[in-house]
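name: query_chain
kind: protein
chains: 1
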Amino acid sequence: MLPFPAYGVADMPKANLTNASIQRLKRPENGQVDYWDQKVKGLGLRIGAKGTRTFNLQTRVLVDGLWKDARIKLGLYPSLSLAAARERAGDYIAMAQRGENPRLAKAEVERLQIEQSVNTFGNVAARFMEEYVLADRGSKTLREGTRREYRRILQTGPDTKSWYPRKISAI
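structure:
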């Protein structure tokens, strides 16, 4: 069984989604309504009662040896453009057709982005200063001269300033 068609998509409203048409679509008084793109099967725009517009992909993914219906949030409009949503949907559809689960891939990408943003030299140096150098650790508190030297090297030293945006894994 191929990943398409996704169940339930065929009987929902379809629209020729364009940036202009997305902006013209009215929000529902309560709940939410989905509009399905005519160009990319399974790509939908969900509009909530507060006016939030979210791109979703409805596809079938292979989970534990069975094809299961899945809705994957792609992003919010206008932060995610229509063109980018179509491209991302196409990538996820291709993954699903290969038997890969796009949800797992998306979660892994997000995890790596968070990990890489946190593990810069600047962030690690700041955390080190806060937790070990400046913290009162009882009998293990550093002497003032040692603290001053750490500050000089890690915070004000010209040797390490260029390292601040670099990822720890790249040093």
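note: Strands lie at 14-15, 32-37, 43-48, 53-63, 66-77.
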